[in-house]
Structure formats: C-alpha cells, structure tokens
Design a protein that fits this description.
Layout: H1 2-17, E1 23-28, E2 33-35, E3 40-46, E4 52-62, E5 69-77, E6 83-91, E7 102-104, E8 107-118, E9 123-131, E10 137-139, E11 141-150
C-alpha cells in the first residue's frame, strides 16, 4: 500500500514539473500504410495570441521503413480562411542506415520541431499533413502527430 502511494506521489510530481502541451493529437494510418489520398487532419482551437508556440510533429514508423526520410506538405488554414502550404522533409536515418529517432523494439519515433511562432488570430486553425512523396503508398508508417507547446521564455 505504501509503495503504491509513493509511486502515485512521485508520478504526480514528475507530471507537474513538465509543462503540458497546448495541443497534442495523433493520426493513425490503417494497416501501417500512408496512402497518397490519406490526409492527417488536426483542428486546434486557439484563444491565446500573446504567447509564442513551438510546433512539433511526431512520426512513428517500423524498423522496416525503407527510406532515410519522408517528404510531406503541411497545410494550415487560419480562422479567417488564410491558407499556407509548406514542404517539410523529415530526416529519419543517417547515411549508414541507423535511425535518428528513438527505437523501441520494432518502432522508431522521430520528433521534429518545424515552426516557432505566434497565432495571429483567435479561433479554429486546421492543420493537414499530406504525403508529398512520389509513391502512392508508403508502407511501415504507423502514425503522425501534431504537438503545440508554449515556448519557454
């Protein structure tokens, strides 16, 4: 009983030490395959335009993924309808084939910060991650996530 209480107190302390994400969501791909027509959509409700935010994506593949990187488009739509489209390269492996991300068993997780900025307007933003490769399908891609954190001063 004392062990369980101690574990609970320790885990609560660890969680409170780190600042949580403003937004954190994951889109999973069916059958571990990113089909060209499959778009990961993320809706973010923004009420704070005063802080700067770090934008991160998290890509999980298997160790059987056959490429050293992955190209994608990041499309965003602001509450006023303004849109942007940015090509983003996600480096996944070194020239010798070793993984850049964290490997756990057969899963490789690669985290990339792709922007640091303010939200100019309050309201709902839509972010889309689109496959920008030449292949119709990319095998061994499990999921992709969007995490937005307030930047520490």
């Amino acid at each position: 009983m004392l062990y369980g209480f101690t574990l609970l107190v320790l885990s609560s302390a660890l969680v409170s030490c780190g600042e949580g994400a403003y937004y954190d969501n994951v889109y999973s791909f069916d059958n571990s395959t990113w089909v060209k027509s499959d778009t990961a959509n993320f809706q973010v409700e923004v009420d704070d335009t005063t802080h700067q935010y770090n934008f991160e994506l998290s890509l999980r593949t298997t160790v059987e993924y056959g490429y050293s990187n992955l190209w994608m488009y990041i499309l965003s739509t602001a509450p006023d309808g303004t849109t942007s489209k940015v090509a983003q390269k996600i480096p996944l492996a070194r020239p010798d084939g070793s993984w850049l991300g964290n490997v756990s068993g057969t899963i490789v997780q690669t985290d990339v910060q792709f922007a640091s900025k303010h939200f100019p307007l309050q309201g709902e933003y839509n972010f889309q991650f689109v496959n920008a490769t030449q292949q119709d399908t990319i095998d061994e891609v499990l999921d992709i996530g969007l995490r937005i954190r307030k930047k520490r001063n």
